[in-house]
Write a sequence for this structure.
């Protein structure tokens, strides 16, 4: 696996406090980034999937700034890949750095796209059966996402929380998003009923 990294010329950077990239620094990339985007288009044209750690976020950024650049379906390395790592976050989300540290990978920098890509590539390189990891992720990603709500009383709300449902105060429901292919097994693990929203 390999990656290419280049800056894209911008007039302002709202995330400068996080990534430390000044807009002036990006101006030097002007003659290079178009060729980098052309190469990315070529790579994308022969790829079956795009992979990102948080695909929901990354696909939105790519589509916002580079519409049509990637037309393939996205696989989310955080939600679609079964690394064996289990987050304590109530939504099942976790940071790439959490996964990397769990895999024994040292971390030198974060919050730069290139660094995050290299870190994800190293996580993939550490997996003992990469082909099965990806095949399972594809099968999972092709299953439709459903939103379910926990049918619990106020007194039993802790059960929904323990099962990693999130509270939506506006709709006044405990909800969770889950792939359709996982729904039956998940329901069998619960001691309360659910319904599809």
């Amino acid at each position: 696996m390999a990656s290419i990294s280049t800056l894209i010329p911008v007039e302002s950077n709202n995330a400068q406090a996080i990534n430390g990239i000044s807009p002036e620094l990006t101006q030097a990339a002007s003659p290079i980034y178009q060729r980098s985007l052309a190469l990315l288009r070529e790579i994308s044209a022969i790829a079956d999937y795009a992979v990102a750690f948080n695909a929901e976020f990354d696909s939105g950024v790519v589509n916002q700034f580079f519409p049509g650049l990637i037309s393939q379906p996205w696989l989310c390395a955080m939600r679609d890949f079964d690394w064996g790592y289990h987050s304590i976050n109530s939504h099942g989300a976790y940071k790439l750095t959490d996964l990397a540290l769990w895999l024994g990978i040292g971390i030198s920098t974060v919050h730069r796209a290139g660094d995050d890509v290299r870190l994800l590539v190293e996580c993939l390189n550490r997996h003992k059966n990469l082909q099965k990891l990806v095949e399972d992720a594809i099968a999972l990603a092709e299953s439709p996402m459903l939103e379910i709500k926990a049918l619990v009383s106020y007194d039993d709300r802790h059960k929904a929380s323990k099962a990693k449902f999130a509270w939506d105060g506006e709709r006044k429901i405990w909800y969770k998003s889950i792939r359709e292919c996982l729904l039956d097994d998940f329901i069998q693990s619960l001691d309360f009923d659910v319904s599809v929203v």
